[in-house]
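Readers outside the structure-tokenisation community will struggle with the description of the input data as it stands. I therefore recommend that a typical entry be quoted early in the introduction. An entry of this sort, consisting of the sequence and the corresponding backbone structure tokens, reads as follows:
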Amino acid sequence: MHLAGNSNLVMIKYTHQFLTKLEDLISESDYMLRYEKGNFKAGYCVLRDQKIIIVNKFFPIEGKINALLEIMKGVTLDTANFSEKSKKLYEELAPIEAR
């Protein structure tokens, strides 16, 4: 899937490697990511006050990636501790999240 924003072209690949990049990005923020079983209507739950993101552990990789991208639209991640790779990815995803 290609998603364009500004002059950047972001390629969303539904692979374990891309999922790992998203997980790393979130782990470097002020949120904690957990995979658990549950009856989440959207497949995930965000506890904003505790800064915890819970995603259905039974989702396939595509579902986990889509859930994390959807969550990132609705939360503000603290980028202060981001690595350069994570900052770059976050900036590339920002135009996508604004849609």
